[in-house]
Structure prediction request, 291 residues.
Amino acid sequence: MLNSVIDDIKSTFRSGNMVSQLIIVNIAVFILLNLVKVFDFNGTIFSLFQDNLALTSDMGKFIFHPWVILTHMFMHISFWHILWNMLLLYWFGRIVGDLIGDKKILPLYIVSALFGAVIYIFWDQFLPGGSNGISIAYGASGAVMAFIFTAATLSPDYSMRLLFLGDVRLKYIALGILFLDLITSIGSNTGGFVVHLAGAVFGVLYIYALRQGVDLISWFKKPEKKAPVRNKTDRKKFKVVHKQSEDKSGTNKKQINKQQELDRILEKITAQGFDKLSDIEKDFLSNASKE
Prediction:
C-alpha cells in the first residue's frame, strides 16, 4: 500500500502544475516535522530541525544558517496554518497561473517569500515592536499573500463564488483577507502580519512593474533540462522522409502561431486586465491552461 501511495504522489508531482508541486513539497515537510515532533519525546531533535529551517533575524545565528531564508517558506507546524495556506495557494495560485502562465508560479513564490523575509528581518531588528532577534518566522503565508494580491491586481473584478456570500470580486476578497489577518495578528503575531503585508505589497508592485515592462522575478528562472547531445552513431539511425518533415513543419507552425496568440493575450491581461478580454480570448486562454 505504501508503494502505491508513493507512486501516486510521484505521478501527481510529475504531471501536475507548479502549484500542485509546491503544495506537495509543503505537505511533505509538514508531515516530516510533525513525525519528528511526535517521536522526539524530549524535544531536542525537533528543536534542531526548527533552528535549521525557521527564519531568524538574529544575525549571529543567521550567518551560520543562511539557508533558512529559503527553507522557512516551506515550513509549517500547525495543521490549521498549513491547511489555510495550501487552500489559498491552490485557489489563487491557479488563477495567477491561468492569467500569466505556470512558469511564473515558482519564481513568484520564491521571490515574494524572500522579499517578506528581508522585510521581517529589518522590522524585527530596527523598528518598534520587533523582538530584536528573539522570535522566528516560518510558513508560506507571505508568498500566499503575494499570489492573492497578484491575482487581485491583475483582474480586480474577477469573481469567485464564496460559501454563504455568493459571487465576490477578487479585490474585495484580497482586502478582506488582509483585514482579517490584521485583526487576528495584533499583539500575538505582529511579525507574521509584517511578512503577510510585505507579500501583499510585493504582489501589487509586481503587476504594476510588469505593466511598465519590468519583470521583478525575471532573474529567478527554473533550470531547464538540456537536450541530450547525440554522437555520430546516433545520427546514422535517422532516415530522412520528406512527407514526415512537411507534416512536422506544419505542426510546428501551428504551435508557433498558438504560442504567439497566447503571448499576445497574456500581454493584454498584464496591460489592461483579464476583464478586457473578449469571450473568444477567454476561451482560448482556458483551453491553453488545460494543455
Summary: The first helix runs from residue 2 to 15. Residues 113 and 143 are 5 Å apart (CA to CA). Strands lie at 55-56, 136-137, 159-162, 166-169.
